[in-house]
Structure formats: C-alpha cells, structure tokens
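Obj.: predict assembly geometry.
Materials: sequence records (below).
Method: joint structure prediction, all chains together.
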Amino acid sequence: MEMIATALPALSQAWALILQPMVLAYLVLGVVMGLAVGVFPGLGGIAGLSLLLPFMFGMDPVMGLALMIGMVAVVPTSDTFASVLMGIPGSSASQATVLDGFPMAKQGQAARALSAAFTSSLFGGLVGAAFLTLFILVARPIVLAFGLPEMLMITVFGLSMVAILAGRVALKGVAAAGLGLLIGTIGEADAGGSLRMSTYDIPYLTDGLQLVIVGLGIFAIPEIVSLLRQDRAISQDANLGAGWADGVRDWFANKWLSVRCSIIGVVVGVIPGLGGSVVDWIAYGHTVQSTRDTSDFGLGNVRGVIGPESSNNAKEGGGLVPTLLFGIPGSGSMAIFIGAIALLGSGDIEVGPAMLRDNLDITYSIVWLLALANVVGTLLCIAASGGIARLTTIRFTYLAPFLFMLIAFAAFQSGQNFEDLLALFAIGLIGVFLRRFDWSRPAFLIGFVLSNPVEKFSNQAVQIASFRFRKSFEEGMEYVFSPIVIVLIVITVLSVVFGLRQAKAIAAEGEVPTGSKRAPLVFLMVVMGYVIAALINANAIPDYNMTDKVVPLVVGGVTLAACLVLLMQMMRRPESDAVFADKEMAGEDADAPHGLWGTLAWFAGLIAATWVVGFILALAGFLVSFFRIRAGCGWGKTLLLSAGGIAFMCLMASALNRDFPPGLLQDAIDLPWPLR
Amino acid sequence: MTKFTRAALAALIAATPFAATAEVDLSGETVEWVIPFSETGGSAKWANFFAPLLSEALPGQPTVVVKFMPGAGSTKGANWFQEQEEGDGTLIFGSSGSTQFPYLLNDPRVRYEYNDWIPVMASGTGGVAYLEPEAGAKFDGSANALKDMDFIYGSQGATRLDLVPLLAWEMLGMNVEPVFGIKGRGDGRLMFERGEANIDYQTTSGYLGGSADLVEAGQAVPMMTWGALDEDGNIVRDPTFPDIPTFKEVCEATEGCETSGEAWDAWKAFFVAGFPVQKLAFLPKGTDQEVIDTYVAAFEAVRNREDFEQISTQTVGEYPVFVGEGAQRALQQATSVPQEAKDYVKTWLRDSYGVELEG
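Observations (raw structure tokens):
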C-alpha cells in the first residue's frame, strides 16, 4: 500500500511533465531523427545518440530526455525495415525477425510483415511500460538475486535455442554454433589478456570482431549476393498482395503470443550484463515451441515476425531497470544515455540507487516517454510501410550497389579501420557458404553473440564458487544451485526437448537440394581445419592463464567432435542425403544467370579500390561501372544513380559527423572532405 | 620543447609585427576532440562536458565535436594521434589513466610518446575503497585484523587502474583475490551488492553516485581513499572525503606496510598517473605557440566560469582542473615514473597474475 501511495503521485507528476506541448514536440523530433538513423542497417541508436550529445548540455531535463528517448525507442522499430525488406539485420534487436520476415517479403507480403511487426513492436513497448511502472518499485532485490551462476544459466538457456534453429541436420547446427562461439573468442581474453587466434602485429584482431560486422556478414551479404545473381526483384510477385491491414489482423489473431513475448522481453532486458542481444532469439524459440504446425517457420510464418518484434521493444523498457536503478547500462545506447543525463539541466539528476528515492517522477517520465515514443514511431512506420514495401518490386540489380555501399559504411563505423571492411568480407564469405551448404546461420550467430558472456560468466562463477566452497561445502552448493538456477535448468532442459521435437520441421533455408559430395566435404574440411588451428592455438596458452584457454578448448573439442561425426556420415551416406545439402546443385541459386564468384568480385572490387583511393572515389568507380556493365544502364541513368548514391552517402556522413575509410591515396596527399 | 625555448619563442612571436594581426580566429572551423575510447565510457562523459564550454570560450566560437576512436584499450587512438601534425588548433586529443598505464608499463602496442604532445588541460579524481560490514567491523584504521580474511574483488584487469587498489591491498598484507573480466566499475559495485564480492573501490563520482548509499544503509563500510596531492606533491586527505583516512595513513598504522621504499614509490607513482592526473587534453606536437596560448586561455576561461564548480561536480568532482603550465606540471608528474617503480610493478604483475609485458 505504501508503495502505491508513493507511486501514484509520482506517476501523475510524470504525466504532468510529459504532457507539455514542447516536450511532446521534442519527443516527435527525436522519433523522426531516430527513424532516419534507424532505417539504415548497422548504425543504430549509438550513432544517433552521440549526435544529440552536444545539445544536451544544460538543456531542460524533461525536454532533453524526450529528445533522447524518442530516438532510442524507435531504433528497434525502424530497423525492422531492413530486416524484412532486405534480409539485413538492422541491429542486434531484429536478427530473428529476418528469419520469417524476409521470406514474406520475397512472397510479396512485405507490407503485411511490416505492419504485423510494427503492431507487435507497439504492443510490446506498451506492455513493457505498464509492467515497469509497478515492477521498478520492487526491482532492486530481484535484480540483485541474479548473480553469476544465474546469468550463466540464462546464457546457456539462450544457447539452447540452437536446438530449435539447428536445421535439418542437427549436428551441422551444433558445429555452426561452435564455430560462432570460437570466432567470438578471437582476440584478447577478458580475464587474463591472452591472445586467441590473433597477434599484436594485427592490432585489429586483438579487439575481437564486432557484432555489427558479423550480423551483416552472416545475414546480409549472402542474401544480397544470392538475389543479385538471380537478377530479379525481391518479391516474386510483381503486385504486392497483402496490405498493411492484414498485418494488424495477424497480430490480433496472435495477441497472446505477443503478450508472452513482451514479458520475455522485459524480464530478460531487466537482467544487467546480458545486453538483450539474445532476447529476440529466446522469443523466436518460444514462438516455435508454442506453435502446433511448425512446417513453414523460416519460410514466412507471420508468428515468426510477431514473436521477436514483441520482445525487442519491451526489452528497451526492461533495460531501463539496470540503467536507472544501478547506473549500469544494459546496452551501448543506454551507456550514452547515462552520460547524457549528467549533462542535462544543472546536472542534479543522477542515475543510480538514488534515482527512485529522489527522482521517481523523472523515472516514470522516462518509462512513459518511452511508451509514447513507441506509439508515435509505430504510427509513422505503419504509415510509411505500404510505400516503402514497394522497394521489393524494384529490380534488385538497382538496389544491390546501394546496399553494398550502406553495409560497407556501417561496418566501417564499428571500428573505423579499413580492416572492418576486410572482416565484413571474410565473415560474408563464411555466411555465403553456411547458406549454401545449409549450416544454420542463426545457430552461428547465437554462438557468436553468446561467446563472450559464456566465457565471462563461467570463469567468474567458477572462481567465486570455489571461493565459497573453500569456506564450506554447503555455502558453495547454496551459491551454485540457487532456486533460480534450478528453475532455469529445468526450463533449459524442457526447451531442448521440445525444441528438438519441433526443430525437424524448420527449414530456415527452405528446401535445399543435394548433389555431388565434393563441395560439402571440402567445406567441412575447411571448418575442421579452423577448429583444429583454434584448438592448437588455445592449447599453447600457458597454464597459469587457465581462464583464457578453458572455453576455447571445450568449445573447440565439442565442435571438432561434431565435425568428425559429420565426416563419418558423409563417408557412409549416399549423395542424396541431407548432409550433402548444396544450393548450387539445383533451385534458384543454381539456375541464376550470374555466378557466385563474379558477383562477390564486385564487392571485393569496391573494398580493394577503397584500399587504394579511399571510399568515396572507390564508390564512384564502383557505382558507375556496376550500373553500366552489370545492370546495363545507359549513361544518363548510370550517372544519375551514381551521383545520387554518392550525394546521399556524403549527406549522411556529414550529418552524423562520420568519416569514410581512407586509402593509400589519402596517405600520400591531403584531399578535401569527403575525399579525405 | 623546453620551457626556455617555448618562452623564447613566445617572446619572439610577441615581438613580430604580425603578432597583432595573426590572432587565432577559429570562426567557422570545426574542432575535433578525439577520445580513444567508445561513446560509452567516462572519458566520453568528460569530453562531452567540456566540449560546449570550450566552444564558447574559443575565439570565433568554433563547433567542437567529440570523436571516438576506440580500440586496443585506447592505444590505437593514441598511436594515431602521435602521427598527427595539424597544429592549427582544429584537433585536440583526450587521454586517460588507461592510456597512461600501458605507456608506463611499456605495453608492446604503445607507439606514442607523451613528451611529444602539448598538454593544455588536466583534471583528476579520487578513489575510495570499502568493505562489507563484517570486515568493516574489524577495520580499526589499520588492516591488522583483516590479514587473515579472504577477500574477493571484481576487477577490470591488473594492468588497468585496478593496479592501484590491488597493489595497495597487497601492501597491507590483505588476501584479495580479483575476479577479472568485468566491464566498468559499476559492474564491480553490483557484484559487491550481490554479496559475490566483499571488497570494492570506486572513483569519486562512482562512490558518490552509488556506494555512498550502501554506506548509509549499513551495507558497506568505507576503508580508505587513495588521497589527493598537495602543491608539493605530498599525499593528503581527499578534499571530497575529509573524514576517510588515506591509504598512506592506513599503511602507516598497519604492521609490515611501509610508506617508503620500492613498493611505496611504485604505488605512489602509479596512483599519481591514474588518479590526480587522470585525464589530459593535448594539442598535437608542433602546434603553433599562439594556438597553444589560445587554448590555454580558453580552458582558463572555462575554469573561471562562475558556475563551473556547480556544473562540474558530477563530471570532474571537487578536484582542481589544471591549465597550461599547471597541466604541463601534472603531465610531468604523471609520466615521470622512475624505472625502479616500473620494474617493481612489472615483476609484481608477472609473479601475482602471470601478466607478461615485453619491451
């Protein structure tokens, strides 16, 4: 009762703060800016927020909050455009949306998929805010109950989603996830600083690979290349069948799924340290497990869009709990958010334990500004979705060069190294082959995303557990097997059992034909080669840095075992077995008018030219020659499209105050921006 | 450049007839303030606080934008800055303790030289160590009763700023086991709050923002601050926490802990580099003297703002902001660590944590 007595006045004060014309105007401004940044894949909220920072100093707190929250809230909404329309995960929040959203776009149902996604986002955001309004008052002890063993178990639960997404040959899924985990360990270890599969001579590798690059490489590049080879529009239907009203109806038919996934989103978002990058996969897993007929998941089941999209906006609300109550950012954009709050007004709002006591009205304003921003953002997105969906009817050859341009720019922003582009290409190559041979790409990505948490939490939990066990056996057991851990173990086991039963039906890559044995075998050997190299490399780390070698050795061992079993299966089974899946044997990839290597060479050419003459000059050459030669445009159209692309790139970079990758030319002579 | 040549150069420039007309004017220019960390860290907060103030104070009110160049624990950005020669005042660089420690420890990735750069502003912070209540009850101003206890501490890494607390506890004879791999001190505090760690330290802003509440609620007991430096470079009580003893006092009261000799010198050297002179703003090598003077004057103006104390408490705390000559002295203090101190720390890092630093 006492709780409600403090909450209600604060809540009404919060609404009084929010419902001022200027505050609402700033919120809408933030939303529009967030949409403008968010529709471009890979940039996300961090780029947008750091753009706002210079204006935050001394700004009226509520207005500044409205501007920033408007921007943060709509990124997980607007990145859906890229996920659904192009198959490019716009940010880590919408990776799972790609699985069913993009196939829907291919079937000419882009508008339907988009509006279902947006309605789910909106609903998720509102559920998140409502839940938080009460939960935030009691959240502190609950958040503190999640120690390292609990976080480790949630990470393992996230990994168990591989069971659902493993594809037709479960072993391949396991091996793909293992490969993702191993690639995630590249670089300097967090615990002891040992180098894994990297050297100080290549400083780029010591920091490890960025999620943006891996996400774009694994999902975007294979899809772009495949569509470009087929030289057609994304949508197989010239006329877009289903409209946006259908999407809203789809959501209504699945409203309970949406409620459940929203709650999953808030709850996982609340736990600090997980960063919410697994939320959409867990929601997707739940969606599959709770659906009777799973035959068309991965081929365009609208539930596969509704589930993850309901969770990812709710997650933003959940992420506010560790941010506001503990001063610990749940994500990169939340970290900037904390920094920016200190600049607001006279600097007297400070996130942390005092937030609830001293600034409960501001806290509630933040929660409900977030909800309101979701509403505004969603309405704008739904209004735009019908028009933007028409992109899927354009001949893809006209879109592809712009997409290459955008993903190269986005990849470069993650680390501002030329190596970012090389890494994007290398990971893209892995993605192309995983797709071709039907190794689960979602499993690979889950492995990569969870690599760092698995290693960190297991090392730390083991260290603290052994400290407790030294005190007494009971104390150790109590720490390791807390009630939360036991519940999570049960959930994980159930999820794997259910998952394996449901998984057989899911074909994330559609029907993949089989053919000769040679190519799949060669790919398996290459993967095994890398795994063995990683194992030897990890084994060479001295024993006093045990924490740095345990995870690579265990994961590498399991992956190698999976690969060896696959190898035996390949030796025994006939060519027609699913283990020999190869998209180049039949179907749309095999029948495509253009070859794989020729198409990849265009992108490689852009990167190579960037190395020599810098990004903008390379882009000019790339666009002109692509439109002229590959697309066969006349000179007029070629020049118009190329100039448009470059002008757009320059406009965006200057608005965001970002640089382009320089080349050898720029090392030699000083050039004016944007050629610099 | 020595002080004499710089003064001579300044005099020379002042004497030339051009001096009056060649005043630095940055109107319409964009000044890039490069931070070798990501958007999310403390240095970002620091630069974002100063950037708009600096913009106002510089002649011509240029746009000051903060640019982030993270990588390799800030050595990537610092190596990049070493190569820059744009001495026209459109580029400044912000370094932090995490940039200074690898430099002092001869990290193989370091290809930068602090003495080449021109410091224009420096600011510092303090740090407070605290204990869980049970251990806190045994703490009597000395660590004598803490020596037979086991402590666990969430650490970002032994070669980072955490070197200062870890070495201090070791000198006190305490048995502190670090759990490595956390990101940011906020995570360390959370680990303490969950009861997984039973000793922790926070920088001043982190302590005031979170841990002070724990102390008030009886869930934590402050142990010691690292102290602050007076004009003569002596360690005195931290002005923000006048009631909490310094490590120096605790060490003096504790059996077996010496405030002289190798270990103490090493600790003090790294403390100075990591706390009282934690963040520095630099102009690149070879910058024109009048640009330097312009920046010194601008930071001076920022520091002298009437509202500076009020608006800066959260970002720089109640610690002095050094400008110009003062920043130069601060840099000297922070980077002139005697070789014996470096060797001592390197040996200690190798023996205690297996960290090998080549070079």
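Conclusions so far: The beta strands of chain A are 187-188, 195-196.
To do: check interface contacts against the pulldown list.
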